[in-house]
C-alpha cells in the first residue's frame, strides 16, 4: 500500500512540476524550476573541453517547519 501511495504522490508531483513553475507543499517545502545557463565543462574521461547546454533544473526549498524539525532531531 505504501509503495502505491508513494508512486501516486510522486506521479502527481511530477505532473504538477511540469505544468507549473512552482509547487508548494505546506509544511514540507517548495519545488521550483530554475534555468541553468550553458557553461564550459570538461569530459572527465578524455579531458576535452565541452559545452554543457542550458537546461531546466528542479530546486527544492524546505519549509521552516521541516528545517526546525530536522534541527531539533539533530540536537537530540
Describe this structure in words.
- With 76 residues, this protein is an alpha+beta fold.
- Helices cover 38% and strands 37% of the residues.
- The chain contains two helices and five strands, in the order αβββββα.
- The chain has helices at 2-19, 64-74; strands spanning 22-25, 29-36, 39-42, 49-52, 55-62.
- A three-stranded antiparallel β-sheet has the order 1-2-5.
- A hairpin with a 3-residue loop joins strand 1 and strand 2.
- The radius of gyration is 18 Å and the shape is extended.
- The model has no long low-confidence stretch (mean pLDDT 94).
Strand order of the largest sheet: 1-2-5
User: How far is it from the N-terminal to the C-terminal residue, by CA?
Assistant: 32 Å
* Average pLDDT score: 94
Radius of gyration: 18 Å
Order of helices and strands: HEEEEEH
Specify the overall morphology: extended
- Counting DSSP H or I runs of 4 or more residues, the number of helices is 2
Largest sheet: 3 strands, antiparallel
Low-confidence stretches: none
Helix coverage percent: 25-40%
What would you call the structural class?
A: alpha+beta
Please report the total strand number as a whole number: 5
Beta content: 35-45%
Could you outline the blueprint of secondary structure elements for this entry?
Layout: H1 2-19, E1 22-25, E2 29-36, E3 39-42, E4 49-52, E5 55-62, H2 64-74
Antiparallel strand pairs: 1-2, 2-5, 3-4
Amino acid at each position: 500500500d505504501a509503495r502505491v501511495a508513494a508512486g501516486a504522490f510522486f506521479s502527481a508531483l511530477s505532473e504538477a512540476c511540469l505544468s507549473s513553475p512552482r509547487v508548494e507543499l505546506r509544511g514540507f517545502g517548495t519545488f521550483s524550476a530554475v534555468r541553468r545557463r550553458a557553461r564550459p565543462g570538461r569530459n572527465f574521461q578524455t579531458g576535452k573541453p565541452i559545452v554543457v547546454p542550458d537546461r531546466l533544473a528542479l530546486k527544492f526549498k524546505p519549509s521552516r517547519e521541516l528545517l526546525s524539525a530536522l534541527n531539533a532531531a539533530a540536537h537530540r
